Amino acid sequence: MTDQPLPPGSTIGILGGGQLGRMLSVAASRLGLKTHIYNDTPDAPAFDVAAACTVGAYEDREAITRFAGQVDVVTCEFENVPAATLEAAAGAADVFPPVKSFEVAQDRLTEKDFVSGLGIAVAPYLAVTSLADLKEAILRVPPPALLKTRRFGYDGKGQATIGTLCEAESAWESIGQAPAILEGMVPFEREISVLAVRGRDGTLRFYDVVENVHTGGILDTSTVPAAVPRALEAKAQRIAGTIAEALGHVGVLCVEMFQSGGDEPSLAVNEIAPRVHNSGHWTLDACLAGQFENHVRAICGWPLGDVSRHSDAVMTNLIGDAANGWRKLAAEPHTAVHLYGKAEARAGRKMGHITRISAKT
Ligand code: AMP
Q: Is the CB of 146 under 6 A from ligand 1?
């Protein structure tokens, strides 16, 4: 690895060609950098905006090695990249974020152990590998609780709610009897997230804390500023910084947290994402340097961009048919429209987002 920043004209290899890869590619091009996208299907939204595209399986080590050999640095737009894929890429190019960030974020048990091992609060949890385990765990993490698969869960997938001990069997069946954790339901007042960015030289910066509302396990809106006291905002950022440093992370890292109410509000980390994140899309339109640009800057060894917020913002995801309203949205004042170029508006599919901007309060 070199400490020299990658100059304009260099090529970033991105594993994954969804909307995050697409927005990374657009941000890279604004800085005079090129992207080469690797995706396992030919219909990737990011292919529309990249200098080069490769279709291949993520498990195809030879193809991944060839791909990495053609670029100057490799990054990922999703966290479930197989470890062997990252290793293959790392054999031919620098890979940022580091493998450790993926190892931790890919497995809910490893993630919870890692975060709580840093002295940071998380929801009560126990590992579950069998129905007997689950029944035992329910006695120690009393319902209401959530059974979550350790791996490959996102947007509320791979999860079952448990209200009583009687529901153990159906919950265990519904997650396909996969290794899991049982997690206590947190009576949160609001969900927030912190987007941190860490440079190759260890410089850390944080975007303002954002408040998220999920519907059916999928992010619906992100609002900034979040209605949290200043001291709590600083604490949330400190937590994200501690995690980023412990991972040796490079790039954007999103830490999702629950804020519980009362006179003494507290925070518990829900999960981390070692990548640009949906709850950071508002930064594109409300900050001088958005999360995509800062991820690019970080992995390329550039100075990080200005994360300060110049406007208040509400980001709303356009899920499924909601994107059909693009004409009306495009006519709305103070509204930035982002459409991902996906052909088919399936239910639950993220088709785009809008960010409504107002004067900073
Ligand atoms: P996850 O896939 O873990 O991010 O979960 C998706 C959403 O389910 C979260 O954003 C929360 O709205 C909800 N959720 C997950 N875990 C918990 C929990 N322990 N307590 C309360 N709500 C939760």
A: yes
Q: How far apart are CA 254 and CA 276, in angstroms?
A: 7
What separation in Å is there between the alpha carbon of 322 and the centre of ligand 1? 24
Domain that holds residue 309: 190-359
Residue from 79, 80, 141, 146 to probe ligand 1 pocket by mutation (most atoms less than 8 Å from CB): 146
Tell me the pLDDT tens digit for each residue of 163-200: 999 999 999 999 999 999 999 999 999 999 999 999 99
Question: Are residues 202 and 179 both part of a single domain?
Answer: no
Nearest to 316 by CA among 208, 219, 204, 175: 219
Q: How far apart are CA 345 and CA 102, in angstroms?
A: 30
Residues 174 and 199 in one domain: no
| Rounded Cα distance, 156 and 342, in Å | 22
Task: Give yes or no for residue 156 having a pLDDT over 70.
Answer: no
Alpha-carbon separation of residue 132 from 165, 172, 181, 191 (angstroms):
12, 10, 13, 32
Measured CA to CA, the distance from residue 186 to residue 209 in angstroms comes to: 20
How many domains, in total, are found in the chain?
3
User: What whole-number distance in Å separates Cα of residue 234 and Cα of residue 191?
Assistant: 16
Task: Give the CATH number of the domain where residue 248 resides.
Answer: 3.30.470.20
Nearest-5° Cα angle at 222, 78 to 306? 75
228 lines ligand 1 (CB under 6 A): no
CA angle 97, 47, 53 (to 5 degrees): 75
* Domain co-membership, 65 together with 167: no
pLDDT band per the 50, 70, 90 thresholds, residue 154: low
DSSP secondary structure code for residue 122 in this structure: B
Q: What is the pTM of this model?
A: 0.96
User: Do strands 11-15 and 34-39 pair parallel, antiparallel, or not at all (unpaired)?
Assistant: parallel
- Residue 226 and residue 170 share a domain: no
Compute the C-alpha angle 172/175/179, nearest 5°.
80
Report which ligand 1 atom has the smallest distance to the Cα of 184.
Answer: 19
